[in-house]
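A protein record in our archive is deliberately plain, so that people and models can read it alike. The record that follows is passed on verbatim for readers who wish to inspect the format.
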Amino acid sequence: MYNAKEDRYDTMHYRRSGKSGVKLPELSLGLWHNFGSDDDADAAESIVLHAFDRGITHFDLANNYGPPPGSAESFFGAMMIKNLRPFRDELIVSSKAGYGMWPGPYGDFGSRKYLVASCDQSLARMKLDYVDIFYHHRPDPDTPLEETMGALDYIVRSGRALYAGISNYGPDDALRAIRILRELGTPCLIHQGNYSMLNRWVEDGLLDVLDREGVGGIWYSPLAQGLLTGRYLDGSIPDGSRASRSVFLKPERLTPALLAKLNALASIAGDRGETLSRLAIKWLLRHRHTTSVLIGASSVAQLDENLLALEGAGLSDAELNKIETILAMPE
């Protein structure tokens, strides 16, 4: 039987999401990879429980996480029954819908039909009465935004979720979505986007929108699908690494120019007595727009390595300037 550590909140810091009353841990755990039915369930369970013992109270899922799709939520549902049910009120659990889940015209994108049905399916898989945050996972170019945001409003008002969020929205669509939700009476709590040293698209207007509108920002892929872990600094592809098996990180991405950039960043980390991954997470956390950084983990040791980013001094202005110079180098 799982017994949570009594000191689990002693070392984690929590940040308010926008202008809401919700605080999230500086690091949250995403179950995008390594928590599907094709993965080691015992190892996945150890990661989740260790995360909670270290003060990570936010667990982020989506209907399509696995593989196969839905299996990460099913895994988390088993965890709720076996270990986490007594701690439900200490957890923030999120899920999303927006990618293809079942055949036919109603199993994808952003219609009210799809979002409500998907939310019900997610709750059943996770053995929950409600999720804390329910996101629309990506913009739908064909469904009116009023319908999609109206569905999120309905999901909250019906008790299926406590808060609404959006993910992967550009600044213009995000602003429209946030304002529609506000008019409906269900404010947008948070935006989830892909943000790292190597992927800075959110800086092109989106951060300003979130700041003006009082919406939080939570960032996934902070290590750029593994590029910022330091595993590829010599240009080789280790067996079992993400670049050797992932559709998201291809070996041809490791160009000489990119390797020069990664090694220069690693040198700054080394001068601080840190790893490249810790530097990359610290770089995101230094931002006032950051509510939380979503980390993944394939082992407890990897989780602990990422948690070390919360320790030690923050980045100085001189270090930030050096990082900017490196990031401006062409790839």
